[in-house]
Amino acid sequence: MAVERTNRDVRTLIAQIAAGEIRLPEIQRGYVWKASQVARLIESLYRGYPAGSLLFWKTGQLAETREAAIGVAPALPNIMPLYLLDGQQRLTSLFRVLTDHPEAQVVFNIETEAFQNQSAATRRNKKWIKVYDVTGPDADVFAIHAELKGAGLGIPEAEIGPRLSALQKITQRDFHMEVLQDFEYEEVAQIFVRVNSGGRALKTTDLALATLSARVPGFLGQLEAESAHWAERGYGALDVNFLIKALTLNISTSSKRIASVARLTAASAESVEAAWEKVRRGLSRVVPLLQEELLVATAALIPSLAALHPLVVYYGRQSDEAPTHSSVEDGLLYWFMAATARNRYGGSTDTTLAQDIKALDSDDPVKDLISNLGIAEGGLSVRAQDLAGRSHQSPFLMFSFLAAAHAGAADWWDGEPVSTLVDAVGKPQYSLVHPALKLRGHRSKYTSAEINELANIVFVSQDTAKNMIGTRSPAAYVQAVSARDLAAHAIPNDPALLEADRYREFLAARREVLADRITAILERFKPEFLSEGSQPTSTQADRSLALTAYAGAGRTVFVAEAEVEGRRWVGWIYRSELEAALDAASAGLASDVPVGEESAPMRVDDEGSVTFAVGPFLIRGSLDQWLSVVKDTFDDVQSLDECPEPTDEQWPADLEEFPLSNIGARI
Hints:
Blueprint: E1 2-9, H1 10-18, E2 22-25, H2 35-47, E3 54-58, E4 65-66, E5 82-86, H3 88-98, E6 106-109, E7 115-117, H4 120-124, E8 128-130, H5 131-135, H6 141-149, H7 160-168, E9 174-181, H8 185-195, H9 204-215, H10 219-231, H11 240-251, H12 261-266, H13 269-294, H14 309-317, H15 326-341, H16 349-359, H17 365-372, H18 384-387, H19 396-406, E10 431-432, H20 436-439, H21 448-451, E11 457-458, H22 462-469, H23 474-477, H24 483-488, H25 503-525, E12 543-552, E13 555-564, E14 567-574, H26 575-586, E15 591-595, E16 598-604, E17 609-614, E18 617-622, H27 623-634, E19 638-639, E20 656-659
Parallel strand pairs: 2-5, 3-9, 12-19, 18-20
Antiparallel strand pairs: 1-9, 2-4, 3-5, 6-7, 6-8, 10-11, 12-13, 13-14, 15-16, 16-17, 17-18
């Protein structure tokens, strides 16, 4: 085995990509760079900054490949290609810019030497030049130079030529290349995962995917095709990582470390194929069941997709010829709803999954699954107070949607059923009953948390939100909605509650209706062994966490107020520190964030969840949830004069996991 080291300029690399002499191996993932990242890369080359090295693999055997996002089909190579292991985003971006790809129209300001993506404003301004017009094969730099002379520039005319020349020379910049020779595919796969981790802890799913691609050529394509199949049906969240996890669970035979990817990577090709058939069979039963029986139109409604895994495993084990008894089917759906309401998968999921997959091996899997939830004989009940303080981040968003869908609610604009109101990216469409503009600045001092509460959300299309609701008071626009449609959406029938002055009463009234309807849905699927006469289990406990932003005296702070069994804790976090930590988390990197006089760890786990230790809680949520919560919090900044004083001492007890989706609620 050897590593060849050499240099090659940008123009040569681009030509090799076009000729098919540089290809992407199957283990590579998709192109993800944004326009701003592409512009920064071009700027780095223009200024002579280091742009990193490239890693290739050279082998005498043909490897499975995937198409690069370059917008053209590469030619069939005359020589054995080099397989790109590290540098896909950079080389793809350069190819797109230097071949005039419509999504890579990077422009250069001759006066300020700034780079950005083309816009309507830059098209009208002669000081902005498209990079391709200077670097392309038909570039007429002399004509561009002459035109710039009459553009009224604020720089000396003598500066124009050198700047255009520097822009032209980006195609001559060298990249350092390392080429692995005579390495086996499985070893190359492990190297790929390491070099692409960017300093992060390696994700086991990355390693599993790379290893499987090496041992079962074409397998990644099967995963992507399956994911695309469900995306067309509203379940786009069932991505490759979800499928890898499902595959792992279906190939495991022991409850000990049941989700260990090591078991997957050590399995035979036959075992992987058999497990893959179970995953596909399971999904083919589970998704239609959720959509047709529960009316869960899109996976975006499901707070944690981990709750789908026990269902997929169960149905994957059933033969197509043996239908599942309706009582078992209802019981599994009841467990799914109860697990969602109780946030069973809001924390670390591996141990929880191990318990629930083990329950599937019993003689009565439904009973054992529900036993794992700790639900008493009376089953689960949802009360109005359980919905207080909940936002769109809450697991109860799904239940509010189901309450509308099962009541036969339709859109107020075009009459389409609620169950079809899913946007282009698979998210449910909704609006606020009382528009925020009618509530902000009201003399009753409604907080952002109150305005955005779940009880103020109604599932209607964007057409309804724009053309009917807008910024109008509900007392005005409901005149165009029938009493039946209002009732289906759980809108209180007291007209006085549709005025801003009575908003808090509106919330209380709607919580009552929603809670009753959600409980009725649970009762419909409740197994017979859960006695109707027993006291039902509530979803509520005695702990809470509120996040508020305060600003003043030139500083902005993010304040966490936590309470556990009557004991209160307050912590201050500066906005810049928090946002820097979340930026690092988006790259998979850990941070330590100052919270008052102490330092709190923010970590990214193997499943992509971001955990942040704050006071008594280890708060856990997806990166998207964190970004959404932080944005919502800073959209409603309070005066620093009203900010509570931070707690001096650390929390004395062990940290409890707290799902970010429960922010603002008492759970």
